[in-house]
Amino acid sequence: MTELKNDTLLRALLRQPTDYTPIWIMRQAGRYLPEYRKVRSQAGDFMSLCQNPELACEVTLQPLRRFALDAAILFSDILTIPDAMGRGLYFSEGEGPRFERPVRSPADISALAVPDMGSDLRYVTDAVSLIRRELDGKVPLIGFSGSPWTLATYMVEGGSSKNFSRTKAMLVEESAAAHQLLSVLADSVVEYLNAQIAAGAQAIMVFDTWGGALSPALYQEFSLNYMTRIVDNLTREADGRTVPIVLFTKNAGPRLAQMADSGCDALGVDWTTDLQDARLYTGDRVALQGNLDPALLAAGPEVIKAEAEKVLSSYGDGPGHVFNLGHGITPDINPDHLGVLVEHVHRASQRAG
Amino acid sequence: MTELKNDTLLRALLRQPTDYTPIWIMRQAGRYLPEYRKVRSQAGDFMSLCQNPELACEVTLQPLRRFALDAAILFSDILTIPDAMGRGLYFSEGEGPRFERPVRSPADISALAVPDMGSDLRYVTDAVSLIRRELDGKVPLIGFSGSPWTLATYMVEGGSSKNFSRTKAMLVEESAAAHQLLSVLADSVVEYLNAQIAAGAQAIMVFDTWGGALSPALYQEFSLNYMTRIVDNLTREADGRTVPIVLFTKNAGPRLAQMADSGCDALGVDWTTDLQDARLYTGDRVALQGNLDPALLAAGPEVIKAEAEKVLSSYGDGPGHVFNLGHGITPDINPDHLGVLVEHVHRASQRAG
Questions:
Q1: B220: Cα within 13 Å, side-chain hemisphere
Q2: Which residues on chain A are in Cβ contact (under 8 Å) with B295?
């Protein structure tokens, strides 16, 4: 493998010293970029884009041509696993992701099996290999998956949900079935992420988008326990380097303390928790990734710079900070604003010496 | 005034001993009740229902005829103040509340004035007087308002919002204008709630639905500071009794600590924070109201009872707990399930002796 020229992200995720604070952005390959929208319209629907390794590679690399980002992240969808389980993922205009065949009964759950990585999800590992080759060691490549709980909500509700009523009712009324569902999902995520690592992913992120909707007790039992199982079973070394694992639960707040017990290397933090408080909650056992409010990228350059500095100083001294937004960049943002952010984070975080 | 026969809620909100844990439910007058849907369809649109004191009184009392709730809460909308400021509130199917004339510029903000309570919002105080008379001392009546920050988001965005981009950009780019807007809203809320208290409201709740979307620093500056100003300026006694004030920020998490400094008597807590942790954050300085996940009311009676007991025991010993959901009851819930909850909370929380 080509030597990695910029390992700042990997070092920061392992709490090793770096020359500056590395930055990447959730959804950095996305609709705010005109060149993305062009490829997206050529591909047809969204899943056709995800399932075409050449196009997935192209959109993954697009933001790196514009900005001095310190990582690439695989362009894909969080719902590839349930789709590969035969639930029929599709995207309906204005409604987001939907499943043709939601999972509603214990019989539905018993029929689920871990997808075959070499066939059903081959398009993902092919994309990883291709992106890794095209990156040519410029920056590391992050692989990812949705968390078991987050995948389960879409499978049970049949799509996006405001209250997760069906899924939550399953947790308390049919908890054995719920555990069976989460278990097959956790096993699938382990195989999926290990396949991504084998294909070239150099860091891993697990997106637990909806974990914050659970009470702390249900969160521990039905979300965090399964993420911990994933952490326990991932390949932790590739090319002679540690593969850092980042967990991200939106609205985690003080649950960051429990999350730091999972054995992961780093936690994503959204803007509703100060990084200073997050360091207290986690006792500085893990690196932290975040946490500018993406809505503030709509402001002008001077405000963006000032707000970026507030994030840097809220983390404070010492290694272990990766700059990011607290959630994905939104389609309405002017790409030049992201350029201002990336450049300023690099400049303002230069270590003396 | 008629003597109050059941003062359990008022006592609990002031952390005084009670014979059992009182319970009321956010949106207890609402679409899950067939008798509500009937009145609602007679009234025409939603605002016509709010603006008709007789009908608002009728739907306020409906849940008390079914369930042994320990409080009534005024039936109204949180957006009555911006509507009375001339912004043209309307409800569009599937989109929720909208304003015909959003507030977009410093000039728009400078033109805003505190509405006249005796004319523009008379329909609200008339409803309060009527409900209070009809209640005849059965249980106390809670009055309410949206928080300044929450009202501001609807006024600036023109309706509901996912990211509050415009409002947040205003906070950081035009903070003087934002403070001016929040200031006139806070003054309006003070007059509005004092008018409700004068008309008969015996406890007050301020709903800061969207405060949890702000970073801790912006939350303090643009939401909590204005709620504190409201607490400082409300009439705190009526009919020889203290009028307790409850603040509720959804997703408050550890911010409950800051909120307890506001001088309020009680805090609403959603299900994402354990009541035990909420007591730690607030140092037992305030009463706590919550916090069953409303989605769990879709489960069967035995699960509802078990989950209610978990909430009671997470609060633990000592006075100062008011049972509630962590957010409003949803239209899909079978009213009988709420009956199970109310009865079980009363039974399971009976104090020995």
A1: 10
A2: 163-165, 168-169
